[in-house]
Write a structure and sequence with these properties.
Elements (H helix, E strand, L loop, with lengths): L2 H14 L4 E2 L7 H14 L3 E15 L3 H13 L4 E2 L3 E3 L2 E10 L4 E12 L2 E12 L4 H19 L4 E11 L2 H14 L3 E7 L3 E7 L6 E4 L2 E3 L1 E8 L2 E8 L7
Antiparallel strand pairs: 1-11, 2-7, 2-8, 3-5, 4-5, 5-6, 6-7, 8-14, 9-10, 10-13, 11-12, 13-14
């Protein structure tokens, strides 16, 4: 998938949940949640195949000049990122920059996106870190840099989504109990679920984390998805929700 398509999908995922994600100051850092999700999957016998961390915040601006000021500040502050420059399309404005994190085989992306709304502009700042494999020691070393970036970008005002995927040997019937085991670890109560022959997902709520989104008036802060292809089943766990294809 091309980068532009990835950015578009990511934007609309987060746009959909705009205004319904809630957090508290004492909620665990997203950097604490990722290793926890990895550990839970590992305990169930699934090695991490990919992981992602999203963050976003929103402003309501009067004019497009605020976008250009923020864009300039981002490029000035994060000089180690490779910036693509500001793009304009039908009144929509976008700036994106990326950076490789070779030590953990991951990448960082910063996106600033603004579009006309009513008498002003809706502006989104999105931060994405994604990797394939997982090494706890290397993560512990790199996470301080990621934490610094998050603090500089959001200043404790963003909403964050952590997601980890792994793989089980076996088809759906043999690994469905793994989903229940993961829910049990978090003492999570099922809110919604979907079940098919080769696909199953649950949305649940746990007091283990304070941040959540609302769906049909009910709180959700953990999602688990299982998908069987051939003789193996992929498991994806996200909090408050899964924000990647599964």
């Amino acid at each position: 998938m091309k980068k532009t398509a990835i950015y578009t999908v990511l934007f609309f995922i987060l746009l959909f949940f705009c205004g319904i994600a809630h957090s508290q100051a004492d909620a665990p850092s997203p950097l604490e949640k990722l290793p926890e999700l990895v550990r839970v999957l590992s305990d169930q016998g699934a090695a991490t195949q990919s992981w992602q961390l999203y963050g976003r915040t929103i402003w309501h601006d009067d004019t497009s000049s605020e976008f250009y000021l923020r864009a300039h500040q981002l490029q000035k502050t994060f000089r180690s990122f490779q910036w693509q420059g500001i793009r304009s399309d039908g009144g929509e404005l976008r700036l994106s920059g990326s950076k490789k994190l070779a030590a953990i085989r991951a990448s960082e992306t910063i996106i600033l996106f603004s579009y006309p709304k009513k008498n002003g502009y809706e502006t989104y700042l999105i931060y994405l870190v994604k990797g394939r494999s997982w090494d706890t020691n290397k993560w512990n070393t790199q996470s301080s840099s990621i934490r610094h970036t998050i603090r500089a970008l959001f200043q404790q005002k963003g909403n964050f989504f952590a997601c980890v995927s792994g793989n089980f040997d076996g088809k759906m019937n043999n690994v469905s109990k793994k989903m229940n085991a993961i829910l049990s670890v978090f003492h999570a109560r099922i809110v919604e679920k979907v079940e098919e022959k080769t696909f199953k997902s649950v949305s649940a709520y746990t007091d283990h984390w304070q941040d959540f989104i609302t769906s049909n008036g009910r709180k959700i802060n953990v999602q688990i998805g299982l998908r069987t292809v051939g003789q193996s089943t992929t498991v994806t766990v996200g909090t408050p929700i899964i924000t990647t294809e599964y």
